[in-house]
Amino acid sequence: MDIIIIEGLAFALPLFIIAIGGIYSERSGITNLALEGFLGFGAFIGAAAVTAFTRGNVAGIEVQMFFVALLFSVIGGAVFAMLHALLCIPFKANQVISGVVINILAVALTAFFTSQINSVIFGKPTNKFVLGVCEKFTVPGISKIPILGAFFTDVYYYVPIIIVVALFASYVLYKSRFGLRLRACGDNPHAVDAAGVDVSKVRFIAVMISGALSGLGGICFAYSISTSFSPSIYAGYGFLAIAALIFGNWKIGPTLGACLLFGFARSAGYKLAQVLELASTFSDIIMILPYVLTLLLLMFFSSTNRPPRALGEIYDKGKR
Amino acid sequence: MRKDKNTAGRDKNTTINPFVRGAVTILGNEKHQSISIPLFAILLSLLAGAIVILFLGKNPIDSFISLLQGSGILPKAQYAAKKNMLTDFLSMINSLTPMIFAALAVAVALKTGLFNIGISGQMLVAGFAATVTVGYSNLPMAAALPLVLVVGIVFGGAVGALIGWLKHRFNINEVVSSIMLNYIFQYIISFFINSYYMNPVTRQSRQVSAAARLTLTDVELYGLKMDIPLGFILTIPVAFLVLFLLNKTRLGYELKIVGLNRKAAKYAGIKVGKSMVISMAISGALAGLAGVTLYLGTFASIQPRVLTSVGFDSIAVCLLGNAHPIGILFSSLLITIISKGGNYMSSMVGIPQEIAQVITGLILLFSACGAYIRYRVELAKENIGNGKLRIENNGEGGQK
Predict the structure, then answer these.
(1) Residue B400 — very low, low, confident or very high, per pLDDT cuts 50/70/90?
(2) Is B44 in the A-facing interface, judged by CB distances under 8 Å?
(3) Does B304 share its domain with B206?
(4) Are the Cβ atoms of B371 and A94 closer than 8 angstroms?
(5) For a surface tag, which of B11, B127, B256, B400 has the fewest beta carbons within 10 Å of its beta carbon?
(6) Is B238 inside any structural domain?
């Protein structure tokens, strides 16, 4: 049971922070299929920064480097997201196209630069940046409580960071003036414009926040699942985050529920395969658990689903 | 006298920027814009790609030529035994075939306002179903090939219809259900391949029988050894069929209306839910064709736990082709040439293979800006037009 909670949280929270990024962008009215590209590119910048600072040898200073990676991933994701913002807002490109293109470009660019940096600087023909695994901590005392204690046992360092960032992000979205304007941009941009606020600017910032949060989630995946950065980070987590946020009806609270559902169903599936001592081939069958569960739940909860009204529309001042 | 004044004024005006004026005359014609603007975007992206290659210290023109050589458009300096330009070209066509079908699948759904991101999953289901039922049977070629196509169409269409029905019945966003189904099929099929159909050496599913394969491999003709992709014969008729369906039939008209304005369609008495299911079924059937031409054509086996990237690339290819069936034929060709020639380019010029992917990304990036280019051209046209008007007004004013 404990291991299900520990592993489930470790997977669900990075997914959640990426989904919050998606919510920021989509609630401002910009369709964001580019989360996959954002998280990959952000993680790439973080990993590249670590590699640059340590000259490819992270042994011994993994913890400090983890925070360096975190910082650079957030910056990298935000900067890369500007591309999506540029295409969608001033260049008036179709937002779906832009998202797909940015995913393709992110895969191509990161694969190209990773192997190029490795071969030119280190003379190694690999497409990987080794990062090491993220440190974990256990809260003394509380962790002894049955079941609930598991939430405080072997916690990855990034888990509390993500919780703080997520709390702050939901405060900004729901309680601040900027958040109000952002949400209004997604539902009725003309009203925002009439109130004297620059719609393009709000949306631009929203997309950049989306990139920053995705970068954060991406580097956490790189540290927990693969302990390195390689093109295998493009495993569809960005799309899973999109599914989670649509499942959560573009609201942060329900989206957390969707992410936890994914996370716990996933780790429970792994555990189940272990307990039943199934052959490794059967683990594939158990891996469908989170997705089947989601589809079934969606059948009951989708009827009231409503996307932001102006989602995907290019804002045109003259149009009424 | 008036004439002189006008020309003098116009000359003054043109000094603003002859480049803009040139671009506007080429791109400004609205009739040709659907072709000229994508071409302009491709040109821009090739320029950007050339700059990247220059930065790597290589010759961009050599690189682009080797790209064309690798995909059989231009002759290489030398060939291995029993190979020449034609065999390279056919091998490129072999990869092109599934891309065209997949991009058409995206287009049909898009016209109805649906975004089919589950092409890869539908391809996998169709390919797997055809592999298991026909690919591992002893049917003769004359029976097997049509059956492969039918099985592909039926299974792909069924998955597509399921996604459409989930949207219609339960209001489940098609993007979410497609992503979920992608994962579900990927894992289930991986389970079946791993348990029953595994070739332990290649770690893929066992090869399908030669009779059921849509690509004739290693055919010896005129002293050459070539792969003949039979599926390609279907691509052009299917593209025209989709064009006919969308533009000339009642069904196609209804689908497009649903795509343009769901409420208006409902008001006009079109059954919106039914249209969405039909559109997704057609889209899925086309994806099924893409699946069988990929898994029982380009390849002869399925790699477990992997979704092909064709399904995702096809979205961009479709949009590069303006979601128009004929445009898609050309955009698929362009993207396939680049990805297919990338190998040869990297070995000949000595630049990483990923650069081909980067160029593809750049092409798609610039063509995504097509609307912006059009907008700027319109703006420039208006400016020039206004300039003319002002001069003419001045001229008249002078006479008065």
Answers:
(1) very low
(2) no
(3) yes
(4) yes
(5) B400
(6) yes
Looking at the fold, whether B165 and B126 belong to one and the same domain comes out as yes
Range(s) of the domain holding residue B323: 77-347
| Number of domains chain B contains | 2
CB contact under 8 A, A284 and B194: yes
Least confident of A8-17, A40-49, A77-86, A96-105: A96-105
Looking at the partner chain, which of B187, B319, B365 has a beta carbon nearest the beta carbon of A285? B187
CB contact under 8 A, A281 and B360: no
Residue B65 lies in a domain: no
pLDDT at B397: 43
The answer on B153 and B17 residing in a single domain is no
Using the Cβ of B346 and the Cβ atoms of chain A, whether some distance falls under 8 Å is answered with no
- Which ipTM value was assigned to this complex? 0.82
Among A247-251, B312-316, B393-397, the range scoring the smallest mean pLDDT is: B393-397
Domain ranges of chain A: 2-304
- Class for the domain spanning A2-304: mainly alpha
